[in-house]
UniProtKB/TrEMBL annotation:
This is HIT family protein. It comes from the Bacteria. Residues 36-105 form the HIT domain. SUPFAM superfamilies: HIT-like. Pfam families: HIT. It comes from Hoeflea ulvae.
Length: 134
């Protein structure tokens, strides 16, 4: 049995979509950008180098398939991938679909305005298309 526990802030700000081999794939609850997180289901990880080489390899694979599915689902111009961890120490990787003219373009999404909740129907439809693309 795993002792992995999701950080309360990640749990509050995102919704679990599916558990992959290593990571939870979670949808951020801010509809301004199609934005998912990968959270490795490992305890005590705050940096990528805290993971085993095998887990690092698995994270790379899961990042690629999640990013490709997000790009396919959204038709976006660019996929941004980043791991900051300044506010939430638990290692998590952001994968964000970006387009020219989006609310923060060309700057970063962090700290830009207030989050906008998903319409439940739009979130369900987006989630279904994303999971299909996986």
């Amino acid at each position: 049995m795993s002792d992995f526990v999701i950080d309360p802030r990640l749990d509050r700000d995102s919704k679990l979509l599916i558990k992959l081999g290593l990571c939870q794939l979670r949808l951020m609850l801010d509809s301004r950008w199609p934005w998912v997180l990968l959270v490795p289901q490992r305890s005590g990880i705050s940096e990528i180098f805290d993971m085993t080489p095998l887990d690092q390899t698995m994270l790379t694979f899961e990042t690629a398939i999640a990013a490709k599915a997000l790009k396919q689902t959204t038709g976006c111009l660019k996929i941004n991938v980043g791991a900051l961890g300044n506010q939430v120490r638990q290692f998590h990787l952001h994968i964000i679909a970006r387009n020219e003219g989006d609310p923060a373009w060309p700057g970063p999404v962090w700290g830009h305005g207030d989050a906008c909740a998903w319409n439940p129907d739009a979130r369900a439809e987006f989630t279904e298309r994303l999971l299909e693309a996986l």
